[in-house]
Amino acid sequence: MKKILILSTAMTSFGFAANADITVMSWGGAYGEAQTEAFIKPFIAATGKNAIMVDSDNPATPVKAMVESGNVTVDVASLEYADAIRLCDEGVLEPIDINSLPAGADGTPAAEDFLPGAVTECGVSTDIWSNVFAYDTTVFPEGPTKAADFFDLEKFPGKRGLKKGAKAVLELALMGDGVPASEVYAVLNTPEGVDRAFAKLDTIKSEVVWWEAGSQAPQLLADGEVVMTTAYNGRIFAAAMNEGKPFQIVWDGQIYENEMFVVPKGAPNMADAMEFIKFATSTEGLRKSAEQISYGPARKSSLATDIIFKDGKTVMAPHLPTAPENLTNALETSADFWVDHDAELNERFQAWLSQ
User: pTM for the complete prediction?
Assistant: First the structure.
């Protein structure tokens, strides 16, 4: 397990010892850095408690392993929505009472202030993020513009980057094949729909470069190994804003969901973990997060058109998955679908990869 718990670069400057009061596991890269600036540093300043962040390619895997082995070294973890629900159902996570969360800055109770679905039995949303695809504008100055273009090797020739897994890949394949976002899960819930998704993936399989960690997608694009790639929208935004990369997001066919803070069963600092989550998911905490990376706040009291990126000049609203103009053909991830079908579809996905 120690091989997974690598201290993030963003935290080494604090010089904290390994026995910090609170250990938060997240996804590293631009996302981990944003959470460090928005949550970790302000929490330390406000409370005087030590906190560190550790990285994982997918925190759900080590969290489950820790709880099952009875050796939990993480207090808070950042999980995808479906994983938060699944691990909660499996008894891996501590329940979180929505009434224990702070009211919004305007006094609205948390139960009314959080967006629908943003608080579950064991998780509290830190942001709304999106799977999108992006391209290098120096390669394609005038496009692509829609989901179907990702699969059009004739009009847009070149390698494609895709996450190595079924989730968000099968949905994009169906939207790329003309299925409206509103009908994707109805289609994918049938054998014929699954066949259709894999048939669409067959059309580009020979040109795919697979990625697994979120930081790999923008790097593939930057290195010229692919001409377009699926990615987490915040990673592409960070590469464009922080590094000046000529990357453009295509919002058509975006697949968005809540990211959740959870507490593993047996966390060594349970009370402090809950306090950290309350602090991070307050109105101000979620606004600070949106100043660092282009993921949307999950509280109504945090939503505002005046949120400015840390450069002091870029208005964040147009860059968020929740911007009205970015939701024209957008799909909200169905946690229920993936809790029910994750194992079988990933098994088929792995079999398809080996063919």
Answer: 0.85
